[in-house]
Amino acid sequence: MDSIFDGLLCRRNPRQFEQIRRAAESFSGLYAGHNIIQDDIFIITENYARLNDMPLEWFRFPIEDKELRACTFVRGGRIFVVLNTALALSEQIFAAAHELYYIRCFLEESSPELERSGSILDSGAADDTGKEEEAEADTFARLLLVSADELVRQIRIYQIDKSLFTEDDLLLLMEIFAVPYEEMILRLLEEQVISDEKAAELAGIPQERIRKRIELTGRAKRWSQALTGNEKLGSLPENLTVNMEKGAVPKSRLDSDWLRLEEIKRKYGIER
């Protein structure tokens, strides 16, 4: 019987996996200083686009449809990334790293897909075996957020016994790297830290039990919550403020724009 993890890119296409590993390592060295990234992924992505002469704007707000995680598109020489903040913060971080793969392909490899049709990440994307690029983007995100060297280092620092790997060990690594539960399991498999049997055992633990364990231990708790206060509407508030200060548009138009902005903020529960 085939393993349920045989679909991993490192097993289906080892050469492509190593290419993506090199890309993730290079990106980390240039733009993250080989540090553990966590929620710095947002400012790192924005800075990366800026350094490549392409402005990037985040639209981060809660979307009722939790199946939709993120989407990216290019319009008017700007990159726009929409991120669903109704998700746990670790899922937002992973979705941002996933979208970064497409942004990188667009900026460095002249891939036309992002400009032509954009990118949409939903909960079913990973199950769509016809989308090889989705598997590549997921792989890039895991490798970027959890580098092999740092994974080995943290396992050594916290003296995790790989032969007796437990769900608490997994939660500890989730706390360190801010990666979702399932993605952490896959990352451990990619580096052969755990066996397929152990991975299946961990993946089979009911989510409710995991949530209770997070509450009890406090491990990965901050990354497992959908926190408010991180909402963002691109440069809209900033642009309106600049227009107001410079008197760039008539007061009636400015009042109308501010009113519309407040309506959008109320609709999506944005506090600021």
Please render the helix and strand layout as text:
Elements: H1 9-12, H2 14-31, H3 41-51, E1 56-61, E2 68-75, E3 78-84, H4 89-108, H5 113-116, E4 119-122, H6 132-145, H7 148-157, H8 167-177, H9 181-190, H10 196-203, H11 207-217, E5 232-233, H12 236-246, H13 251-267
Properties at a glance:
272 residues; 2 domains; 5-stranded mixed beta sheet; globular
State the distance separating the first and last CA atoms. 53 Å
Sheet/helix structural class:
alpha+beta
Number of domains: 2
**What level of helicity do the residues show?**
40-55%
Q: Specify the biggest β-sheet.
A: 5 strands, mixed
Number of contiguous helices: 13
User: Strand percentage, roughly?
Assistant: 5-15%
Give the rounded overall mean pLDDT.
87
Count of DSSP E strands? Answer: 5
Shape: globular
The low-pLDDT segments are 126-130
Order of the strands making up the biggest sheet: 4-2-3-1-5
- What is the string of helix and strand elements? HHHEEEHHEHHHHHHEHH
CA radius of gyration is 20 Å
Question: What can you tell me about this protein's structure?
Answer:
It is a single chain. The chain is an alpha+beta fold and 272 residues long. The chain folds into 2 domains: 9-232, no CATH class; 235-267. Helix content is 55%, strand content 10%. The protein contains 13 helices and 5 strands. The protein has helices spanning 9-12, 14-31, 41-51, 89-108, 113-116, 132-145, 148-157, 167-177, 181-190, 196-203, 207-217, 236-246, 251-267; strands at residues 56-61, 68-75, 78-84, 119-122, 232-233. The chain has a 5-stranded mixed beta sheet with strand order 4-2-3-1-5. A hairpin with a 2-residue loop joins strand 2 and strand 3. The protein is globular, with a radius of gyration of 20 Å.
